[in-house]
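For consistency, the fold was encoded as tokens, as this record shows:
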Amino acid sequence: MKGKERMAFHGDKKEGTWLLADAENRLKDWLVPKVPKGIETYHLTLTTLLWCALIILFSFLARYWVPFLWVVSLAIFGQYITDLLDGEVGRRRNTGLIKWGYYMDHFLDYLFLCSMLIGYGLMVEDHNKYLLFYILALFGAFMVNSFLSFAATGAFKISYMGIGPTEVRLIFIAANTLIIIFADKFEIARVLPVVLAGATFALFVTVYQTQKMLWKIDMDNKAKQERDTPVGEP
């Protein structure tokens, strides 16, 4: 582009601090060299479609035999591993699929979230299904906040209040484990209002902090522009 510098894309560089970040980085460094050469970054990214299908299928089967939720938890763990490795494999092998990876990775993350809530929707009673739609709307709002903030600042943040995608997956696995162990006493419907309340509070705090940060950036830029503008020049 003549006369203009093309802005660098930083969507592949995730920012934020979550509880298991350090352990996750060590696991990534250990696993990436073990990925076979025939498996590329796009193979790992698209594997999320398989994990989503398994989650929905075995959640449906868990209606009739609760231990099928172990397979659901295994699929969650599988999606975590492939999601952890896909970007790093691409960077180390210089695959070049930076924007494709950003788009597909996060679109498939949304499908993964939907598959989890669809799975739970297959297991709860009809009069409680509306809670899952509210939770999907809230979790979707976190994703929208990340993308809007990224567009405004160029920094792609994926964790909120110390909680990132890894911790969310662990919550799903913990919920599945409780359902299996206490099948006769534990009901998903009792947990959903707590999740809903917690997510609502976290979203409020996140949006407040984000708008406050953007306000400061705008005011700093305005002050700098006023300092740099010669006296008498509009």
